[in-house]
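On clarity, I found the account of how folds are encoded harder to follow than it need be. For illustration, here is how one protein appears when written out as sequence plus structure tokens:

:::
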Amino acid sequence: MDLVLCHTTADFDALGAAVGLCVLRPGSRIVLTGGCHPTVRDFLALHRDEYPLIERRSVNPQKIRSITIVDASGRDRLGKAAEWLDLPHLNEIAIFDHHKEADSDIPATVTQIEAVGASTTLIVEKLKNQAEKSDTPFRLLPSEATVMALGIHVDTGSLTFEGATARDAIALAWLMEQGASLGVIAEYVEPALSPQLQDLLREALKNLRSEILHGYSVAWVLLSTEAYVPGLSSLASRLLDLTETDALLLGNVYKFGENENNRNIEPESPVSNRLTIIGRSRIEGTNLSELFKPLGGGGHARAASLATRDVDPLLTLNQLADELKAQIPHPPTARELMSSPVRSIRPETSVGEAHRILLRYGHSGLSVVDAGDRLAGIISRRDIDIALHHGFSHAPVKGYMTWQLKTIAPDTLLPEIESLMVTYDIGRLPVLENGQLVGIVTRTDVLRELHQQKARDRGSNAELSYCAVSESVEQLLRSRISAELWQLLSIAANIAQNRGWQLYIVGGAVRDLLLATDDTLALTDIDLVVDGKCGSDDSGAGVELASSLQKLYPESRLDVHGQFQTAALLWHKDSAFGSLWVDIATARTEFYPYPAANPEVEASSIRQDLYRRDFTINALAVRLGVPRSGELLDFFCGLLDLESKQIRVLHANSFIEDPTRIYRAVRFAVRLGFEIEPQTEGYIRHALASGIYYRIQGENGRAPALETRLKSELKYILQAPYWKVALQMLGDLQALRCIHPSLELDRELWRQLRLLDRCLNGRRKKEGTTRILTRIHGLMIEGESRVRGKKEEGIGKKEEKEKATISNAQFPMPNSPFPIINIPDWQMRLEVLIAYLAPEYRGKVAANLQLPADSIKRLEVLEAGKKQLAENLPKCELPSQLVLLLRNYELPVLIAIALQSPRSARRQIWEYLTKWANVEPPLNGNDLKALGYKPGPGFKRMLDDLLAARLDGDLGDRAAAISFLAQRYPQA
């Protein structure tokens, strides 16, 4: 016999899961181990015969083959049936439950406990999967689909409870397809209160005790009845709604006799006092299941119950109420929520100037303070718009500001702040301390905090499997970085806290932490942001914190950039930190005076600091230090974009302000394997099509974002192993126009880049000169068809710096007049891009990108060299003529010319490099002196003649060379 056990006082979720298991395992029987909920009892009164139920007393324990327990994982919830779990002959004990926080004391061989809204969902998923794999039509009976749908509806509040998930909704939809009866569901999901429960409701309202704590209302009441009253959970829910209480404990004490042995706890005496308590809570951070567990109760964090006996009912209820109040977390204060410093203006400021400030900083209102920095009023964007509409841009704001204000103190609690905003319909509340304006709390701050509280309370129910919820980020960070680095961060957080600041890890380190799949995270670059005001000097809190840390870590180097209120601590090959860069900045906001300009920065709040960043996935922060250490700040849905694997910009003008973000978008997309979000791609294309960058360069003479900052982004991309894919994406976006409006990645330019890559790849394979020159042969001779036919190389997931350089030292040319050079691969690729422009633009673009002087010079003379070789190469019939012509060109110039030349020219350059470049004269200067020649300018002529004769095959050995000299340069 295979049994499915429902917990005592079975609800619809337990019954629905049990029925589903009987469909999965035909022949199984359901045991209600200790009665059922009144609504379930009424349902079974009509539908009992449709389900394979069996009385507990009818079960022969010796014939039990397997036991499956649904919606419970503890023995104490199975009544006397728990004794069957100790039978030695059982083949299997399985548990299917959705109470992840519950401890199990059952020796199960199969366990599935997952954070879904209802246990029935787990079983429905198995049924759905079986139906999809079945070769024969699969259909549930309407009675089976209905009871399972009831289980999900009741336990998820029809998908409205916080524990409800998308999986529950999918399961419910499938059950509706299978024929679940909506009429039956509607009848039993919201049953009306019985006359007895209505009487008890009136009594409860009369005797209810309540208390306000931390802004939350907690209530409790004890009801006395002659016997057990079914349906108390419905009464508790109704009472909670009527009183608008945040948390409720409803107790019921009654007499229990031996003839009532179908109740939860078996009596040991003829009559005893029994106490049932139903708990409901809407307060984030409370856990009724944990509260009731010591007395044998359980359930969910927000809805739980217990049944006990022989206790003092009132004392027990009061003790539980006190423990519940102790669970209530201290709500955030205005100091934790507020933005600071506050952007303020004087009453005499004109409406027009106030409008300009709002536009600059993106605020919806401004605080107005008097000469003593005391709050005088607030003016909103709407007030300013009306004044401007009526032509009063010159008028002072004091005539339009609101001066009768509601204000709060730094220690005002969130519930009170929320109440003020709702009661008076206020969008922002100034925070005053000792009469001074120290911050402001907006409606957005409150809504965000309420949302984050719910996310924290969901815990493991968070949808992002790899993105830890707030409480666990600290643990995740601590487990994945070195102990020394964690200690450094902890010390920094303590220093900040002692000064009244908040410290955050921001940007890429947070992103990589959440995306990391390895147990360890190698961080070599960490960005810290300090949110707080420095009173000692104008350098900023970030600089002060960095200076304090450097005193504790004297082996580090401190770099300070006071203009931007930033500092950096650097370790190089340190025994503890390796090579580590820790950038510490004061929280800042920024403003671009014109497109592609360098931003102007000012101290601001952490939210504004994150808003100025490029993409949502880089606008994440983790709070360090108490309170709420490890809290994840996600103001712009970066977690959702990490889950969706997409790059999304924070605002529509982002690429207008900073075109280098286009290149960063491509770099992150290719490196992380993400997609650029469609609207973000639209913003990119609009910015490029507008021609704003070229126009700004014409108007202002320069656009800083298109200079060294653009070169840095090009370097990151062109030195990365995935440069080909990234460059193709930039070409598709037509983003190479940022370099020059006429530059596009067409087929010819791509061919040249691929030819160069073959050359560079060959040089990196250090298998001797023969191998290198053979690869250059491929560059010069094999042509476009093979290059285009070659498959793309694999794309790496992580950037790495390529240290290989191209050097003419690979081809010793003792007589070469130019110096030996070393050029990184990325720069060679960039020079090929620039060289594809019209000759008149090359030097200007290279200078604009601030390339090295020799690079600018090469690009400026490239066209002349190309014309010279085009004219003179056909005239070179002898090897000596070829060498004497080509040895005057740098190797990078030769390669650049070869890339743009026809095959015949490439062949001659190849012959020079592979056959003749390494040939030396048979005699050297010392030999000439030994032969009696006097050193001087004539030596060069003599050696050149010797080299030419050897190249052309006129000299066979040393003796022939001496004879050659004697004939050409006879001595007196």
